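Notes to self after the Tuesday call (sharing in case useful).
The group wants a holo model before anyone commits to mutagenesis around the pocket. I volunteered. Ligand is 4'-deoxy-4'-aminopyridoxal-5'-phosphate. Logging inputs and output together so the record is complete.
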Amino acid sequence: MSESKIVAQELAELDKKHFLHPTSSIQQQQEQGPGFIFTKGEGVYLEDVSGKKLIDGMSSLWNVNIGHGRKELGQAAMEQMNKLAFSSCFATFSNEPAIRLAAKLAEITPGNLNTTFFTSGGSEANDTTYKLARHYWILKGRPEKKKIISRKRSYHGVAMGATSATGLKPFRDFTNSLAPDFYYVDNLSAQSLREMVEAEGPESIAAFVAEPVQGAGGVHIAPENYFKEVRKVCDDYDILFITDEVITGFGRTGKTFGIEHYGVVPDMMCFAKGVTSGYAQLGGVVLSESMFEDFKELSVGTLLHGYTYSGHPMACAVALKNIEIIENENLIENAKNMGEELLKGFKWIQGERKLVGDVRGLGLMGAVEIESKVHGKGPLSPMIVNEAAKQGLICRSVVFDDMDTLVFSPPLTINKQEIESLINILHDSIYAIEQKFL
Ligand code: PMP
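Result:
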């Protein structure tokens, strides 16, 4: 057996014994070992311990926006770590990368979103917005405003608040006690929000939270006027509007932030993932100027919310370099253009393959629906994902809520040739499953 096979086997055994994986099937791990053990990344490609190369059609977890293997980010991390790896941001202590990143975010976020609270990731960012929203209404003398409304098919993370806000029920059913005061409305209907607000009573509602494009729930794109109507409902009833840009931020949809497609500005915006392209763990919440003005005026004593790693100097230094690369390399423009190519490819497959239903995309977030039901079969997208992985493409299947959908979000650096490879592998994988099941 070759040296690399021996190492791969040893790692697989250790993985099965000692590693409880996030969002994974334990049964699958125990029967088959880890799906891949990755060792290298370069551009849109990942390579595993056996030397197999795959297109990372998901930017891993929708997050590696500038692609793999960017030495500049390693350099930025090393320089900052060597200078100041960590210092606290509690008790008004501060550090230069956190300050500069907060200022940069004020510059690139829409409207009057100007002040940032940092977290280590997207779940913490979501929990932060729910707590800040409720705290805000306490300060405003309206403590009864505490309900948080989110949308069906939404995903906001796995911290207790974020799980409670998540509209995909299986994530909530994972545990048997959730945070109270969370409600769910239809995902693409502002009328459904208005009805919920009126039924529950606006005096009891703190905030509404939505992803500009729903990601993990199957890439659902809102109709053109949806967010304008949502903003109006929130304004009519004094409800804070929160956007969760954890996936849609930093160029993913062909604009810097997803909500920019809809011409409205939220009161708070969650971000994570693409802020560092996954090279360091960072997230946060950007607050509107008017909210921060109210906090400045009304807050007394200590704001009792903060994570050890809020404003982590190394993570913030990496984010600054990452944003610089996104800007210098026109990656947002590229996401828009390559997104159009990707969608063209999906439409071509739709014409070729019986199994394919609706296809959609915005920038480099895309979805291909598989019509297993039409053909009287169980969900087939998981099998297509396995076949695609064999053929050299990583994508993801969404089977919640009776969906049978493939989702995609390749790095923003992807070029036309790489899109073509992605589309060809996807086509051939769907064809292979059609041959087996139709
Ligand atoms: N919000 C959205 C929209 C997400 O897609 C995710 C992660 N997929 C999260 C929040 C949670 O982020 P994290 O996993 O970094 O906690």
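Two things stood out.
The mean pLDDT is 97.
Residues 61, 121-123, 126, 155-157, 211, 215-216, 244, 246-247, 272, 283 surround 4'-deoxy-4'-aminopyridoxal-5'-phosphate (CB under 6 Å).
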